[in-house]
Design a protein that fits this description.
mainly alpha; homotrimer; 75% helix
């Protein structure tokens, strides 16, 4: 049950993140463009995960609640658009919570399909970031994940912790909660203190 | 039977649309680039739809006629390339007929797989536009769908009408024909009278 | 057995090709970005092929050795990064061997799934180039395949030869080896002698 509700909440947050990103761009100003970007951001990661696992039917094709959650989030964005002023920060927060939830959901579903633990961690990461990659590609920005890879590292840390806790027979709801908090916490800290991973320097960098 | 033939015709039109788009660009001038862009434009939408539905085998992998249709369209483009001068308009027309056909085919196949009606409409839209998104991405233009979202709205209108007619027990061939005409008609009108959806304005637009 | 080992070797080469490409770009300089680009380059083609065929489970989700091969390749890149100076040429060589192997693997697996021979050739091509397309897209370059379509033509030649040899009942290991050598040979010759396919000229080119 927890995982089912987390999915709907993640969908809600990612739809807002996608809609907000789209409405800030010239080419996406009309209602359909904003809705569609929000929609693809919300379902992108889970859809790719399910297609990779062969987990048919894909959830949003069979579960009406997911579509209702997307529409609610879109209406929420419309109603509160005037109050969401500090765009960058808001976008980041909604994206971060969505990413935290989707990472854990991705790992959990992958393990259900008997994927090996290492691959499950990677699939959790893909679930979490692919919606954002679609969003950033649609609005023609460098995907957030590649601009600040520490974000991805936060996902991986959370995914590894979640997998380890499950193998240690910790209750899955508790394991999920702890791991999500870790992801969100690390991402916020990374932004606050401008953390970055060490550079990969081979001595013949391009000079820009 | 109607749906089978419509598929072949849609493939034909989208191949031409993709080939024409590619031949206008520096990087795609050689024969292979033109053919491959036409090919991906033609099969992109249907392939993504079938992968989302888990509808294996994907049609062009098992049905030789689809590949024959693509080759015919490519040869057609080669032979008539000198007569296709007003490129933008021709590209738009071929794209529009393809989009009309694919929307209906996407909805119809989704309903066959017991997808809920709302999701079927979205899947119809994805089927119709994804080939064009691939085409526009390959040739490095803003995807047509995002530049003029009224096009997508036309698809949605047609998809909703088709779904409603089927639920009202209208014969599927008649429902499909009416809905396709609606899509093509709305798109052509939208271009002729420069229709656009209302903007999504939150008061802090980027100034370009 | 040959095909299993070829897959691991192809994975190894493509990971290096992806990592090298990423490390040359500003936005990907940190370790995670380099690893992830290498990873997606290595698994991209095979994953798309398996998703198109409905061949579940996708190999890297069930076979630990693939992930081990990727990690080995990444460590190899880290250790030897100082000696890999002539970047463009090295990248090309790793990419070429990977492409040769993946083309044949793609055709072979497609035929196993009773895809028609023409579609199998195209699927071989997609398997071979899609990882590179992801790589080039991530690092914001025009995909190599579209810049020099002669590369794709090499794949198609090898794929057709392989299919023909199998239909002529040649032993599959021998057929695979001959066809891979053909692909690698044609690609290297194409670069050395700057071969290109004839242009697709319709008389109203864009002037740049």
């Amino acid at each position: 049950m927890l995982f089912y509700w987390l999915n709907l909440i993640g969908i809600f947050f990612f739809t807002i993140s996608g809609s907000l990103a789209a409405r800030d761009k010239k080419h996406y100003h009309d209602y359909f463009g904003v809705f569609f970007t929000g929609f693809l951001t919300a379902i992108g990661g889970g859809t790719l995960r399910d297609m990779m696992l062969g987990a048919y039917p894909i959830s949003w094709l069979s579960d009406r609640n997911i579509l209702i959650s997307i529409i609610c989030a879109f209406v929420f964005t419309l109603v509160f658009k005037k109050y969401i002023v500090k765009l960058t920060r808001t976008l980041f927060l909604f994206d971060t919570v969505g990413v935290g939830i989707y990472t854990i959901l991705g790992v959990q579903k992958s393990l259900e399909y008997h994927v090996n633990p290492f691959a499950a961690v990677i699939l959790g990461l893909i679930t979490a970031v692919f919606g954002g990659v679609i969003r950033d590609t649609l609005i023609n920005e460098i995907p957030l994940i590649f601009a600040k890879e520490i974000y991805a590292t936060a996902c991986i840390a959370g995914a590894v912790l979640f997998t380890a806790l499950l193998y240690a027979n910790v209750d899955s709801n508790i394991a999920a909660s702890i791991s999500m908090v870790l992801i969100i916490f690390v991402r916020i800290l990374a932004v606050k203190y401008k953390l970055a991973l060490p550079k990969f320097d081979a001595g013949n960098e391009t000079i820009d």
